[in-house]
Design goal:
The complex is a heterodimer of chains A (about 950) and B (about 260). With about 950 residues, chain A is α+β, with helices and mostly antiparallel strands. Chain A is built from 31 helices and 37 strands. Chain B has a nine-stranded mixed sheet, with helices on both faces. Chain B has a two-stranded antiparallel sheet with strand order 5-8. Classes of the chains: A alpha+beta (about 950), B alpha/beta (about 260).
């Protein structure tokens, strides 16, 4: 038997004055209730396997593992504290963690590469980990230490731990457990078909299983596991959007809907027929015209479940996936957006259901995941939102968007018979395969089992390389078609590309992260950072050279054919042979039942018993409400300046700390003054009462935000992202139908076509009552708009004292059902209704745009959560300029805090007053209302019936808003 | 007149190469983004360039410390070429990740010394931060900052930008030898020293950038290349004009002209 080379253990510690992690961890531990801890010291661990000499070891440690100015390193014999010492001093504990074998570990990869570079060839494998030395005033038992590890130091999904010194694990060099399996499907009865579907976690219905059976009976053979898994994947909700294609019947309304997507969403786009829409719902991303030279692509995706299990990795790969979607239309990514919905971050850990991560930890992990990927791929994260509701505690929502720029008509999408099928990027592992099953399995640290399957961790460095290669390959016309490897891996990517022609694939050539993968695992792996290209033979050498320069691995998987048949081989065996027709059109349509009786839920739980409103106090409460308060701490973690095109930034105003309604980009390299506007609309609170109005309000809000900074309302495209519960529940589906109708009606009304969308269904959580509940119906609308002249763009911060403040959309009366005023305990005698679309909004937006284009407006802010008072306070805060307003003799609550669509506050100089008023003539004359003036008094004053009812200094407002 | 050629070095993970190339174009030079692999394969040659820029980004994903692995590349593959470039007194500029590379490769503050004099480590705040800062020029020896009177407004975007020296003597040495190129300042141009957020990362002496003894090699954490046109300045919608970073690039270009 061969003795395996020694594993060398290295510990790297920061010198105390440069140790931030330890400090941060201690603070976090106290927050979690471990108040007896007096210190947590964190060190990095490296395990290097190979026959290394003492000289090799010190060279690696000095040159690679540590920074001599701020760090120290120790090898195994020079531990900072020995195990004996630990035992003697019972108040000191050691916890060590390491990544599970198979989990993407870019650090280990780079150590391997760099060791070669400095001439150390004997290094065989590397693993990394961390160790924590914990000091406590009180004794901690094993259970408490394990709990601390799980809550603060690691995530069992990707890490394993030891209370003491950890033994490193490497992926075992295993051979495949099995080759291809034949699934005897033809002789199964209905019951057996269903249990097969469950057993393989394919989520196929009986109807679908029967269709598959029928196909194989006709072929006179049984499917291979590769075929079965491919069909299951292609027909999955994720890949085929069954619910949005399903026939929906409503007993209540005696109505049949032939597909939500076709009837409402696409229908709106087709009816609007905007000439500037280049691609809607066809490609990986929607595409609109920018100028004579460029087009813009936009896509927004969700990554909810992965983010619930492993927040960092989930959000990381969520952004990674949408970046690849944009690369998949040959566009260069130029901006990212992120919208998150989390549970309340102050919830008691003890009250969380088993296995659910704390919302604060999910939030921090998700934000860090986006930060890591966005920053490292050099894409500015410029627009976003964070929304908190207890309904998202166990099921957070993570929306990641990406905008890309394409030279006009430079996105080829015609693979030719004979083109090589080229895979670019990262290696293939078990990443993402049946993730849900893996994460619930107990993983035994001793077995060395590859655990990477349960989660996807990204490697932004490879994504960056893919961007460089794709853009250059596009410009040099090296490919006939391109798509990304997302859900379904190669199966979806190659399958979709070959759907009109055919392909012959050889899986032997796929480069693997570790051995032992079965053919179906290779074919369906969701390993990140991979693109598939159709490359003509005569361009292949050029592409190989380009990939060599940018250090991107390239694999030739086979070639496209004209047989209309998808064929896959592994070790000379045909493991998949399916007709495109069956794979892509063979899925039976689903039939679903919806309850369309619109139900207004008036049993508002949050309603206050208090009948005497303390208005000033309520304003401060609103400003510090998590959904309204400053997001600066998150925004600054993202590089929103990279690429040099961020003209209106996510932080605005006199001190660069005010909010922005939308972002404006002027991509470097584009000519003229045209710019891109990005905005979003989201209001799950409305969805709790009225899904239709939530949808129209989300669209109104996205458009309103875009128009507020100067977007041309006739050049706005929108994207929908539905996150909903289980569509088999007629009430939940009924709300989805209502929301789709709302999307349709509002899109047509505003003339804003949908260009792309995505749905994530079956978002559920286990509540304290032990039952499963759907998350709040959530619809994110993302807006992509054009501004003809970026120099006309405006921000919301008050600019000067002595200007007039107008309310625009004055006929839209503020209302309270689902409003934030009620959420913070405000009392109203009547809840009113969920805001709806008002008749004049479209015209108001046009005229406001006209006024902005004529530079008549100094600042403009839309009115949304928290109503007029909150918007006014934000304008004062951002501009560090005070104001005084006088309200009408009507309901004060409604005027200050009511929510409605179609409203703005604008600042106008006295010289521009007449021209501004002239923009709102005739029917719109009473839509504008002078409410007050800006001043030099550094305070916000609200007068009502001749009395001063609110007066705060800007500092007081700022304190509440910034927390 | 022939425009000076600028080698904008691209390594895996570099991301502000296009912006710095744009800034050099505005400054009258002819920049070319070159992947270091192209230099290794001799497809491109160091001799053809008069200025070297190592731009911002996350070379090799900042693995094992920002800039460290690209610094290793410079030491292993390009030691002679870089040495020659510096000895010929050709201007060298490292921005953000590029500054980290120059320091960790031992090219700053004193070229060809070991790399234990100084480093750039995690911000005192403990996390990445993107915000606009103000810079004031100090060194009159540094060819990049020479004659720069007005402050510069530009963003920082880094997590490991705290400039640290191995001992305090080195600081006085840097001061005496006029090697402190740029300092963080308050908006009015007063030096920020340690005051956050004007000094965004806790760098010793409020140092934002340093140069070598001969003043030809400069590294800085902030991104002057992200403020070369008016509409990049955050408060332009308030009618304010920011102080552009273009001067630095023009200085470099004029030096070789």
């Amino acid at each position: 038997m061969q003795i395996s080379p020694k594993i060398h253990r290295f510990i790297v510690s920061h010198k105390p004055e440069h140790d931030h992690t330890s400090h941060t961890l201690l603070k976090a531990s106290h927050k979690l209730g471990y108040e007896s801890l007096s210190s947590i010291t964190c060190h990095d661990l490296y395990f290097l396997q190979g026959n290394l000499t003492a000289n090799d070891k010190s060279r690696i440690a000095d040159k690679l593992l540590s920074d001599p100015v701020v760090q120290n390193w120790f090898s195994e014999n020079e531990e900072l504290i020995s195990d004996q010492q630990l035992k003697k001093n019972t108040q000191q504990y050691l916890i060590e963690i390491a990544l599970r074998p198979g989990v993407t570990d870019p650090v280990a990869e780079q150590i391997m590469r760099a060791a070669q570079e400095i001439g150390i060839k004997s290094l065989m494998q590397v693993a990394t980990g961390q160790r924590f030395i914990i000091q406590s005033h009180n004794k901690l038992n094993e259970k408490e230490l394990i709990q601390l590890a799980n809550r603060l130091l690691m995530n069992p999904v990707i890490h394993y731990f030891a209370l003491g010194k950890i033994t490193p694990l490497f992926p075992e060099d295993a051979t495949a457990r099995h080759e291809t399996e034949i699934i005897a499907l033809r002789e199964l009865n209905e019951q057996q078909l269903l249990s097969l579907s469950q057993q393989r976690r394919s989520a196929l219905s009986l109807q679908e299983m029967l269709a598959i059976q029928y196909y194989y009976i006709k072929l006179n053979r049984d499917p291979t596991d590769v075929e079965f898994e491919t069909i299951a994947q292609t027909w999955s909700e994720h890949c085929s959007h069954k619910t949005f294609k399903a026939t929906i019947n409503s007993q209540t309304e005696k109505q049949t809907i032939n597909g939500l997507l076709k009837t409402y969403i696409r229908a709106a786009t087709e009816k609007i027929a905007a000439p500037w829409v280049w691609s809607a719902f066809v490609d990986n991303a929607g595409i609109i015209e920018f100028d004579d030279e460029y087009q813009i692509a936009f896509k927004v995706e969700t990554h909810n479940h992965p983010s619930a299990i492993e927040p960092f990795g989930g959000a990381n790969t969520g952004l990674g996936g949408v970046i690849r979607d944009v690369l998949g239309v040959s566009a260069k990514p130029i901006a990212a957006t992120d919208i998150f919905c989390f549970g309340l971050p102050d919830v008691d850990s003890e009250k969380l259901p088993e296995g659910v991560l704390h919302p604060a930890r999910i939030r921090d992990g998700v934000v860090a995941g986006v930060q890591d990927y966005g920053n490292k791929t050099g894409i500015p994260t410029v627009n976003g939102a964070v929304y908190y509701d207890h309904g998202y505690t166990a099921n957070p929502l993570v929306f990641c968007g990406c905008v890309g720029l394409i030279p006009k008509n430079q996105h080829p999408r015609d693979p030719q018979s004979g083109d090589r099928i080229i895979l670019l990027g990262g290696r293939t592992g078990r990443d993402g395969l049946r993730g849900a099953t893996f994460s619930s399995m107990t993983m035994d640290a001793q077995t060395g089992e590859v655990a990477g399957a349960s989660v996807q961790i990204g490697n932004p460095l490879i994504a960056k390389g893919l961007i460089e290669v794709t853009v250059r390959a596009r410009d040099a016309k090296m490919y006939h078609a391109i798509t990304d490897c997302g859900a379904g891996g190669l199966s979806s990517a190659v399958g979709e590309m070959a759907s009109t022609i055919g392909a012959e694939v050889n899986l032997d050539t796929v480069k693997l992260k570790y051995s032992g993968l079965a053919p179906w695992e290779i074919w369906l792996s969701e390993a990140q950072e991979r693109m598939v290209l159709a490359v003509p033979e005569n361009k292949l050498q050029e592409l190989i050279h380009l990939c060599q320069i940018y250090d991107i691995e390239l694999t030739d998987l086979g070639y496209f054919t004209h047989t209309k048949q998808l064929r896959v081989k592994y070790k000379q065996q045909l493991v998949l042979d399916l007709s495109n027709e069956f794979l892509f059109d063979g899925m039976p349509l689903k039939n679903l039942e919806a309850d369309l009786s619109v139900e207004l839920n008036n049993s508002y739980l949050g309603i206050s018993k208090e009948t005497n409103n303390k208005l000033p106090e309520l304003l401060l409460k609103l400003l510090s409400h998590l959904n309204i308060a400053s997001k600066e701490k998150i925004i600054r973690l993202y590089d929103h300046e990279v690429q040099g095109g961020t003209v209106i930034k996510p932080l605005t105003g006199a001190k660069n700390d005010g909010p922005a309604d939308a972002c404006v980009l002027k991509p470097q390299g584009t000519k003229g003054k045209k710019g891109i506007v990005l905005a979003n609309g989201l209001n799950p609170e409305y969805g709790k009462y009225h899904a239709y109005r939530m949808a129209v309000s989300a669209i109104d809000e996205a458009i309103r935000n875009a128009v507020a900074v100067g977007a041309d309302p006739s050049r706005i495209a929108i994207l929908d992202n539905f996150c909903w519960g289980n569509p088999n529940d007629p009430k939940i589906l009924g709300a989805l139908v209502a929301a789709c109708k709302g999307c349709h009606d509002a899109a047509i009304y505003f003339g804003t076509p949908f260009i792309s969308g995505k749905d994530s269904l079956n978002n559920e959580y286990m509540a304290a009552d032990g039952k499963r509940h759907a998350i709040p119906h959530t619809l994110l609308i993302s807006a992509l708009a054009i501004i003809d002249d970026i120099t006309n763009a405006i921000t919301l911060d008050f600019k000067n004292a002595g200007n007039e403040i107008y309310l625009i959309g004055a006929n839209n009366k503020g209302t309270f059902l689902g409003s934030h005023f009620i959420k913070v305990g405000g009392y109203v005698s009547e809840l009113g209704e969920v805001p709806q679309l008002a008749e004049n909004n479209r015209e108001i937006y046009r005229q406001l745009h006209h006024a902005i284009n004529h530079k008549l407006i100094k600042s403009c802010h839309d009115i949304s959560e928290g109503g007029l008072a909150v918007s006014l306070a934000e304008m004062c805060i951002a501009g560090r300029i005070g104001c005084e307003i006088l309200l009408e003799n009507k309901s004060i609550e409604s005027q200050l805090f009511g929510e409605a669509n179609g409203r703005f506050l604008v600042e106008i100089t006295p010289e521009n007053r007449a021209a501004f008023i002239a923009c709102f003539a005739d029917d719109l004359a009473d839509e504008i209302q002078l409410i007050g003036k800006t001043n030099n008094r550094d305070s916000l004053t609200v007068k009502y019936k001749d009395a001063e009812i609110i007066h705060f200094s800007i500092d007081e407002l700022l304190k509440a808003w910034q927390g | 007149m022939i425009k000076p050629k600028v080698l904008v070095l691209h390594a895996n993970g570099t991301n502000r190469d296009a912006e710095v190339a744009y800034a050099f174009t505005l400054a009258g030079a002819d920049p070319e983004i070159v992947h270091l692999q192209q230099l290794r394969l001799n497809e491109k040659s160091w001799h053809d360039y008069q200025i070297l820029v190592i731009p911002g980004g996350f070379s090799y994903g900042d693995t094992l410390g920002a800039g460290k692995l690209l610094a290793l590349d410079l030491q292993v593959y390009f030691a002679d070429a870089v040495k020659k470039f510096i000895e010929q007194k050709k201007p060298v500029l490292g921005i953000c990740n590029g500054f980290q590379v120059l320091v960790k490769a031992g090219l700053l503050p004193t070229p060809f010394q070991n790399n234990t004099q100084a480093t750039l480590t995690f911000n005192a705040q403990g996390h990445f931060e993107c915000r606009w800062v103000t810079l004031v020029a100090q060194s009159q020896k540094c060819l990049w900052t020479k004659g720069l009177v007005d402050p510069i407004d530009c963003p920082v975007a880094h997590g490991e930008g705290q400039f640290v020296l191995n001992n305090n003597e080195l600081l006085s040495q840097l001061i005496t030898q006029d090697q402190i190129a740029l300092c963080y300042a308050k908006p009015d141009g007063q030096k920020a020293d340690q005051i956050y957020p004007y000094n965004p990362n806790g760098s010793i002496g409020g140092i934002a950038g340093i140069c070598n003894e001969s003043g030809t090699v400069m590294g800085l954490m902030p991104h002057p290349e992200d403020h070369v046109v008016d509409y990049q300045f955050p408060r332009w919608t308030r009618g304010q004009k920011g102080r552009s970073g273009l001067f630095l690039f023009k200085n470099g270009v004029n030096y070789v002209k």
